[in-house]
């Protein structure tokens, strides 16, 4: 666990992939070797580099990047340079020159695959790493301001815990309700886990994590649907929220798209539903067996009608209709 002046980054060490690199990292961390060093080189939304003991000295800036090397031979493995990969820095052209220095891939870096030893992965705090990558740099790519690693702590990997709503039986899922607090009133949704269990679990998980809070009803087609859940209508997601956003395999079922039906929006691929959902405002036979129905409006249909009636420019509301918060309750 790296505690930095920009936030905390937690890494999962890959001892089975690079045992010698992991051993050196642990030894250095437990001896306090990383404490007081800095992330000194960064490429915006690319990589951030740290682990050089020379960076403890603010006056040795000209030598940053030269310390802690030539301690290890390469342990190249089949791990990919995807977002969150942590790799050992090496001297260009010398694969067996790694040491205490490391860099974190903030975004996928496929051009680096097979060239550096990946010995860890970021499991928490990738947004912190991303923020560090956005720090100002000079003409040599060195950070203008010091971003300090205050302390590195080695701890046991916590036991895996199941995702929210992943273990409840169908009958329990059916007891949940979602209360949509909109700028035009409240809408309460009930769910159909017997028809679309994975979509119900997904919606409950996203809602409880606050993914829908601060969104809007961005699409309104009178006599058809009102739609929300579009990520660009809200601010940035936090790391936990991002983790729960994924594409869903279709669960088309025999439920009809009638007024008050809640269904998942998607792209042309049937398995591309993610966060966006719509409420049907009139019988829409063309949607049957083409979109996954997973719930219905239990109360607040009058609010749905109010939203449907707002002025639009094409399919976009003239004035923003807020989805302020979604609250999950259990009956």
Question: Can you offer a commentary on this structure?
Answer:
By secondary structure, this protein is of the alpha+beta class. The protein folds into 2 domains: 2-152, Cyclophilin-like (Cyclophilin), CATH 2.40.100; 170-330, Cyclophilin. The chain is 15% helix and 27% strand. It has helices at 19-30, 126-133, 170-173, 197-208, 239-244, 301-308, and strands at 2-4, 7-13, 37-38, 41-43, 47-50, 85-88, 102-105, 118-124, 148-152, 176-182, 185-191, 215-216, 219-221, 225-228, 261-264, 277-280, 293-299, 312-313, 316-317, 322-330. The longest helix has 12 residues, at 19-30. The two termini are 40 Å apart.
**Overall domain count:** 2
Give the name of the CATH superfamily of the largest domain: Cyclophilin-like
- Tell me what the CATH architecture of the largest domain is: Beta Barrel
Query: What is the overall pLDDT average?
Result: 96
Total strands: 20
- Overall, the morphology is elongated
- Quaternary structure state of the chains depicted: single chain
What are the low-pLDDT stretches, counting only 5+ consecutive residues below 50? Answer: none
H/E element order: EEHEEEEEEHEHEEHEEEHEEEHEEE
β-sheet strand percentage: 25-35%
The portion of residues assigned to helices is 10-25%
Regarding CATH, which class of the largest domain? Answer: Mainly Beta
CATH fold field value of the largest domain: Cyclophilin
Short overview:
With 331 residues, the chain is an alpha+beta fold. It has helices spanning 19-30, 126-133, 170-173, 197-208, 239-244, 301-308; strands spanning 2-4, 7-13, 37-38, 41-43, 47-50, 85-88, 102-105, 118-124, 148-152, 176-182, 185-191, 215-216, 219-221, 225-228, 261-264, 277-280, 293-299, 312-313, 316-317, 322-330.
């Amino acid at each position: 666990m790296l505690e930095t002046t920009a936030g905390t980054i937690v890494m999962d060490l890959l001892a089975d992939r690079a045992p010698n690199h992991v051993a050196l990292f642990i030894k250095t961390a437990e001896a306090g070797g990383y404490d007081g060093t800095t992330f000194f080189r960064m490429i915006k939304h690319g990589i951030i580099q740290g682990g050089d003991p020379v960076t403890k000295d603010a006056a040795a800036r000209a030598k940053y990047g030269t310390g802690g090397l030539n301690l290890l031979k390469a342990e190249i493995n089949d791990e990919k340079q995807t977002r969150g990969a942590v790799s050992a820095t090496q001297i260009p052209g010398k694969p067996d020159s790694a040491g205490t220095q490391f860099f974190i891939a903030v975004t996928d870096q496929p051009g680096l695959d097979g060239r550096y030893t990946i010995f860890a992965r970021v499991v928490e705090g990738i947004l912190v790493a991303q923020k560090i990558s956005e720090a100002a740099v000079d003409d040599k790519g060195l950070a203008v301001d010091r971003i300090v690693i205050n302390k590195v702590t080695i701890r046991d990997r916590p036991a895996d815990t199941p995702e929210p709503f992943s273990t409840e039986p169908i009958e329990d899922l059916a007891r949940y309700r979602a209360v949509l607090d909109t700028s035009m009133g409240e809408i309460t949704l009930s769910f159909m886990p017997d028809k679309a269990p994975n979509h119900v679990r997904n919606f409950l998980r996203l809602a409880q994590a606050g993914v829908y809070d601060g969104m809007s009803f961005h699409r309104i087609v009178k006599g058809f649907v009102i739609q929300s859940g579009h990520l660009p209508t809200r601010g940035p997601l936090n790391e936990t929220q991002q983790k729960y956003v994924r594409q869903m395999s279709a669960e088309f079922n025999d439920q009809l798209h009638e007024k008050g039906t809640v269904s998942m929006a998607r792209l042309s691929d049937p398995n591309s539903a993610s966060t966006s959902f719509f409420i049907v405002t009139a019988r829409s036979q063309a949607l049957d067996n083409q979109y996954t129905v997973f719930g219905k409006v239990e109360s607040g249909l009058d609010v749905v009608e109010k939203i449907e009636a707002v002025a639009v420019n094409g399919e976009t509301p003239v004035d923003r209709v807020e989805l302020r918060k979604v609250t999950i309750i259990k009956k």
